[in-house]
Specification:
Largest sheet: 13 strands, antiparallel
Strand content: 35-45%
Distance between the termini: 30 Å
CATH topology of the largest domain: Porin
Number of strands: 15
CATH architecture of the largest domain: Beta Barrel
CATH class of the largest domain: Mainly Beta
Number of domains: 2
Order of helices and strands: HEEEEHEEEEEEHEEEEE
Shape: globular
Number of helices: 3
Radius of gyration: 18 Å
Helix content: under 10%
CATH superfamily of the largest domain: Acyl-CoA thioesterase, double hotdog domain
Oligomer: single chain
């Protein structure tokens, strides 16, 4: 099936209703199964909270809990300033649908500070290869989630869905199919766009859903290239009792580590 990519910025467009309250619309093509892609919800919370803090403060982290599925269509985004410190701002951001909270996030922004200690960043792995190198899989709904048509993936075999990997891990290059604003919101979409690592060991598709996530921004995104590739390395550390996780790193194509993330998934492979 032919892809019909949509500009990311169009989906992330919000209309202000009043202070800290916004409305938006998510199209069905940004869904996975019956619910919207979680990375879009993360990015919307980032865009909304960004409007309430000083531009001098960068996104430090975002914690998200999926209370319930968000269906494609109209949403309301509500932000509340929890604390405005001298160097760090904390906000709560909720995505509501039909008047009910579906997503709850805690978002932290901060100014750059001079510390007495530092450590080298984890380097882009040698196995990553050249930006954009890897296998391109066909877009075949419903096997392929609808939202993946808006993104360009280059998978590293066997660390891919149904890849027969010996260890649970997903790896590859990724970027929006169409150029988009290179900001924190785009990074969150990239960091959330890969499937759970246990899919790399699966022999047949099965449903899994995110329960909660913690994403941390590391370094500023280089802007020399307006449409760069990002490399994702996401191994699992715990799988069992119907749950699994991922500990992911995301690098810019120039080798800059831009973000890290941890997610917990519900695994429905044992459902009969």
């Amino acid at each position: 099936m032919k892809k019909s990519p949509q500009p990311l910025d169009e989906t992330l467009r919000l209309s202000a209703l009043e202070d800290g309250i916004f409305s938006g619309v998510i199209l069905p093509t940004w869904s996975q199964g019956r619910a919207c892609f979680g990375g879009i919800l993360l990015a919307l919370c980032s865009r909304a909270t960004r409007l309430l803090v000083s531009p001098e403060r960068r996104l430090l982290s975002i914690n998200i809990t999926y209370v319930g599925p968000v269906a494609p269509g109209s949403i309301e985004v509500r932000c509340e300033r929890l604390r405005e410190g001298s160097s760090v701002s904390h906000l709560e951001c909720r995505v509501l649908q039909d008047g009910k909270p579906r997503v709850v996030t805690i978002v932290s922004y901060g100014t750059r500070r001079l510390g007495s200690l530092d450590m080298p960043r984890i380097e882009l792995p040698n196995w990553a290869g050249e930006p954009g190198a890897g296998m391109e899989l066909p877009f075949i709904p419903p096997l392929s989630p609808e939202f993946t048509q808006h993104l360009d993936y280059r998978w590293e075999a066997p660390y891919m869905p149904l890849g027969g990997a010996e260890t649970p891990c997903v790896r590859g290059w990724l970027r929006p199919a169409l150029p988009a604003t290179l900001d924190e919101a785009q990074i969150l979409v990239m960091l959330d766009a890969f499937p759970p690592p246990l899919w790399s060991q699966a022999t047949a598709p099965f449903p899994a859903s995110s329960l909660s996530s913690h994403f941390q921004m590391v370094d500023a995104v280089p802007t020399a290239n307006a449409h760069p590739w990002f490399y994702y390395d996401g191994p699992a550390t715990v799988i069992g009792e119907g749950y699994s996780d991922v500990r992911a790193h995301l690098w810019h194509e120039d080798g800059t580590l831009v973000a890290i993330g941890a997610q917990q998934f519900a695994d429905f492979s044992g459902r009969t």
